[in-house]
Amino acid sequence: MHLEKLKLYNFRNYPELEVFFHDKMNLILGENGQGKTNLLESIYFLSRGRSFRNPNRELVKTGEEKAFVDGIFVRNDTDSKEHVQITMNYGLSAEGTSILLNRKKLKSRSELAGKILIVDFTPEDLSIVKDGPDKRRRFIDNELLNIKPVHGAALKEYGKILRQRNELLKTMQRDPSVKDTLFVWDERLVKTGKKILFNRIGFMQKINGIAKEIHENLTDGKEALKLYYYSNLIKNNDDLSSFEEIFRQKLDQNLSQDIRRGSTSAGPHLDDIKININDMDAKTYGSQGQKRTCALSLKLSQTSIIKEETGEDAIVLLDDVMSELDGNRQQRIMEHFKDNQIVITSTEISFLDQLPKSMKKIYNVKSGKLY
Ligand SMILES: Nc1ncnc2c1ncn2[C@@H]1O[C@H](COP(=O)(O)OP(=O)(O)OP(=O)(O)O)[C@@H](O)[C@H]1O
């Protein structure tokens, strides 16, 4: 799939823009603060109906009430087109965001799911490797949602049960008699928690091989990437069949501590993913460039999964990815995604030197205008 044409009106610092893209490499070149990320954000916005960084209201150019983003995407296998038009109106009529797909109004942005195939990488994705477990859990859950939408319902349900259980624990600090109702929540937590854990472990097996291959490719075979799902309840996959029992026991064991804290100290909401490079923990021992390559391999493994599931090459959006990567890694990225349309932002151009003119388009951006 590729983006053929993009139109913006009052989107961030773009008053008006119409641009035709190359079906392979597109470089958005410019100094800091000129609108490079804003342009990528508008493309991402067309695929999800929301931004990767801010609420929709902030996407409207300051001082304006109404904005729109319009994109025509072409499916490579059939040549059929998907036309997405999103209008944001935060004036007096305050209609909010409305989405048209092929001129038909969508009831909610979830109807866009799976229509526009985009994989993005932004500097914030480095947090998958360098920050706390919540970032890794969110990464795996988001990736999973793309191929298994029912995972979303399980997560929502689990969150609800967890909040209610925690409320009950707090009530028990004052009124121990409510303890009788706790087992109902525990049982629901265990059943839903099992669904989440099984989905995640299944997905980890899938992504492990793909991310390893991409990482090997990007590092010229120098680094072996390995991911481990780290459950606070079970030690290895042999324990999977006794997961429910172990979870119930742990909830019982931790009860007095949980009442004191008013929160639940066991369950998949506390799990983590260990990311190793050559058998060493990437978070602790990886250099900045190694962490970035790791995050890239993880995030971009989605392109292979999309290809496997749909037969289509996803559009790859890369925001400022080349800084901190050596020339070799930069070239490997270009090679690895040679079948995908790439839209990449950068303040420099040298990594494209080896790509023939006919294979790339370079746009200079200055104060919300392309040249
Ligand atoms: N809603 C908005 N209305 C008008 N201008 C905006 C809005 N949101 C952001 N901007 C402007 O957009 C510019 C930032 O654009 P962007 O984040 O795309 O920069 P960039 O070119 O990617 O820079 P860098 O290389 O530093 O990451 C800033 O000048 C900011 O003031």
Structure description:
The chain has 371 residues and is of the alpha/beta class. It contains 10 helices and 15 strands. The chain has helices spanning 36-48, 127-130, 133-147, 150-174, 182-218, 243-253, 255-261, 282-285, 288-310, 327-336, and strands at residues 2-11, 14-20, 25-29, 66-74, 81-89, 96-101, 104-105, 118-121, 225-230, 272-277, 280-281, 315-319, 342-346, 360-366, 369-370. A 6-stranded antiparallel sheet has the order 2-1-4-5-6-7, with helices on one face. Strand 6 (96-101) and strand 7 (104-105) form a beta hairpin. Helix 4 packs across helix 5 and helix 4 crosses helix 7 (255-261). The radius of gyration is 23 Å and the shape is globular. The model has no long low-confidence stretch (mean pLDDT 93). One of its GO terms (biological process) is DNA synthesis involved in DNA repair. Its main location: cytoplasm. ATP binds at residues 30-37. InterPro entries: DNA-binding_RecF, DNA-binding_RecF_CS, P-loop_NTPase, RecF/RecN/SMC_N, RecF_2. This is DNA replication and repair protein RecF.
User: What number is the mean pLDDT?
Assistant: 93
- Biggest pleated sheet: 6 strands, antiparallel
Structural class: alpha/beta
Number of strands: 15
Oligomer: single chain
What ligands does this structure carry? adenosine-5'-triphosphate
Helix content: 40-55%
Question: What integer value in Å does the Rg equal?
Answer: 23 Å
Number of helices: 10
